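Dissemination and training. As part of the outreach component of the grant, students in the summer workshop were shown how a complex can be specified as a set of sequence lines and then modelled as a single object. The example used during the hands-on session is reproduced here so that future cohorts can follow it. Participants entered these lines:
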Amino acid sequence: MVFVPQDAPMAKVEATRNYGANVEMQGARFEDALVAAQGYVEETGATFVHPFEDQAVIAGQGTLGLELADQLPDLETVVVPIGGGGLAAGISLALNAVRPGVRVVGVQAAGCLPGGSGFTIADGIAVKEPGELTMGILEDTLEARVSVSDEEISTAIVLVLERVKLVVEGAGAVGVAALREGRIPGDGPVAIVLSGGNIDATLLISVMRHGLTSASRYLVVRTRVPDRPGELIKLLDLVAQERVNVLSVEHHREGMAISIAETEVELTLGMRDEEHCKSLLEAMRRWGYQVERLR
Amino acid sequence: MVFVPQDAPMAKVEATRNYGANVEMQGARFEDALVAAQGYVEETGATFVHPFEDQAVIAGQGTLGLELADQLPDLETVVVPIGGGGLAAGISLALNAVRPGVRVVGVQAAGCLPGGSGFTIADGIAVKEPGELTMGILEDTLEARVSVSDEEISTAIVLVLERVKLVVEGAGAVGVAALREGRIPGDGPVAIVLSGGNIDATLLISVMRHGLTSASRYLVVRTRVPDRPGELIKLLDLVAQERVNVLSVEHHREGMAISIAETEVELTLGMRDEEHCKSLLEAMRRWGYQVERLR
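and obtained this result:
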């Protein structure tokens, strides 16, 4: 029986169910799901397994540190996500024991920290603070603790997706985000733990769309066409000649300070890059359209 | 200097440029880009490297077959994408030599075959037919050639993304599609070559959205609300209580056979699963809304 918050990603819930678990979705946050689990334990006498305040769980996650030590002889720094801190505690304990020279840096989602919004796309580490047990270990073993914003996490998700061809969830991308933003101290070879990959496809789509907009792969233009049959086709035809993919067409006739014989059209277009955007805007102006770039 | 068709995925073009190549985007299809490359060779005296009709290219791709033989002692079947056939020819030649008992099955995109639409999302293998050299090898060495549709390819892309956490392009997913559809003969352990991962993020978003709709992760409902201030908020509030994420709201006031005092609203909603869809539709009816499920 596994307890998760009500808004846990369906990707994670389904994957857990596929491994044979009963999944209960209860409460808004991690802490609420924990209370629900404790209630269930009291009622039924089941054995409680805490997700991080548990020596056996920490030791199990520590095997990841042993594998890193074993497979990467040149390693100087390991970057690990911190939510409850179990994974980070296990890895840093293990590395401190077998490779004491390796720096372990923990990364938290800024949204969850004091002063944050309370929300983060890194739901896998959306815990108010590490536990007592894990925090005690982390204070002794970590080189540093740093944090990253949701914007930085989302850029990292898109980078890993496009260049490494791997799907990582927000919690899995925090290490890449911290490295990209220059927050990892020291130099030499770095290993980043990407844990895990349970991101909801709907969230992944939003993150990708955000990333594409920043990279000028979407263009939103507003223009006007005469409100007569055939005029929209004429515009779309010209756009197609520039090898531009039309993603949506919206007409606005209400609340606009334009002539009654015209209609405002907002086009969302799939572009190759900023150069392609500029050349299309130029072409549209050459064809006689007034254009306004919205994004 | 690398020649690719005009509509080649920007992900592939950018990756190629990042490796230091000059990329020329010419012509609508693979065959046109080939002609442009040959023209460039005639003009400049450059050395022509054909992407598949070349023994050295085939031999190079054959090393993948040697690695498979080396790393997978239990292997009985290998599934390989076929476009021009270079990758498949190299792998099947190598495996025939070192592991003659292993079956090699080639998979083509149905859209490119005679009788197909001429278009496929598997642009990496969008070649009208394998070359003479590669076809000669494939006829001698392949166990079977099978084909898959774009719909099957797109389901495979989403499956690999969600369950294997890997980004593959259409050409990379054809083997998984063929296996899922039961088109791979024989039994025992199967290895599928996922080559490659250069899918444009915009196409990946469309493919994911398509997959999500099939899995009831999107719901589109049409309903009516009184055309008065506060009525839309009331509806959205009820929807939020069911823990449903609103992706878009569209108002239709034109061309509808509804009362002048009402407005039609179309909601696109992010759902957990089919059960969640049904329970929301029931709740909306209970609240007194007429609802029509569009998707």
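The beta strands of chain A are 2-4, 23-25, 77-81, 103-109, 144-148, 190-192, 218-226, 245-252, 262-270, 292-293. Students were then asked to discuss how this feature might be tested experimentally.
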